[in-house]
Amino acid sequence: MITRLASEARATQLAQLHGWQAVAGRDAIQRHFVFADFNEAFGFMTRVAIKAQEMDHHPQWFNVYNRVEITLSTHEADGLTGRDIELARFIDSIAPALLSV
Amino acid sequence: MITRLASEARATQLAQLHGWQAVAGRDAIQRHFVFADFNEAFGFMTRVAIKAQEMDHHPQWFNVYNRVEITLSTHEADGLTGRDIELARFIDSIAPALLSV
């Protein structure tokens, strides 16, 4: 059973992420990305998909052309857990920082 | 310059698609899919992505785990065009009919 992040761990871990915002009305985080084109955007999504499958922890995401919006939360815990932090860190590690909006 | 479908062609062509619904408030169509798992859902998305890139006509889409929601419209025409019909037909051709919801 995976449990939601306690408030102290949460603050520390969220502070280490880049560009993630709290989602209104639910315990989740979201980050928006803009790429040069669809090829770059979907290539990025494919890298995230492979990682997500490896973790058995999947994002909610939206894409249109060069934009990708990713929302992370843990269904079983009804909120943010260490799995979301781990996936967010991976996403940050492959995201071109200057293209994040 | 690509132009929106005229009403007669629109009715005929939309009637040949499977499971697509009009989107409220804009000239677009949407279809929802449910797959067995994320692997199937993202594999389907990858096939659509490759076709979209070939057509230079991209979907708006949302995914979480085994669910995919696709919205089609043509930005340059601010509405439905023959490109949307062509992409929808391709999607229909690779979508497992029984898994559409």
Describe the protein in words.
The structure is a homodimer of 101-residue chains. With 101 residues, chain A is α+β, with helices and mostly antiparallel strands. Chain A has a single domain (7-99), classed as Gyrase A, domain 2 (2-Layer Sandwich), CATH 3.30.1360. Helices cover 40% and strands 19% of the residues of chain A. Chain A is built from three helices and four strands. Chain A has helices at residues 7-15, 38-55, 82-94; strands at residues 21-22, 29-34, 60-64, 67-72. A four-stranded antiparallel sheet of chain A has the order 1-2-4-3, covered by helices on one side. The radius of gyration of chain A is 13 Å and the shape is globular. The model of chain A has no long low-confidence stretch (mean pLDDT 93). Chain A binds chain B through residues 38-39, 42, 46, 49, 52-53, 58-65, and chain B through 38-39, 42, 46, 49, 52-53, 58-65.
SSE pattern of chain A: HEEHEEH
The strand order across the widest sheet of chain A is 1-2-4-3
CATH superfamily of chain A: Transcriptional coactivator/pterin dehydratase
The CATH architecture name of chain A reads 2-Layer Sandwich
Q: Count the strands of chain A? A: 4
Biggest protein-protein contact in the assembly: A-B, 15 and 15 residues
Mean pLDDT of chain A: 93
* Unreliable stretches covering 5 or more consecutive residues of chain A: none
Give the termini separation of chain A: 34 Å
How much of the sequence lies in strands of chain A comes to 15-25%
Quaternary arrangement of the chains shown?
homodimer
Helix content of chain A: 25-40%
Radius of gyration of chain A (CA) equals 13 Å
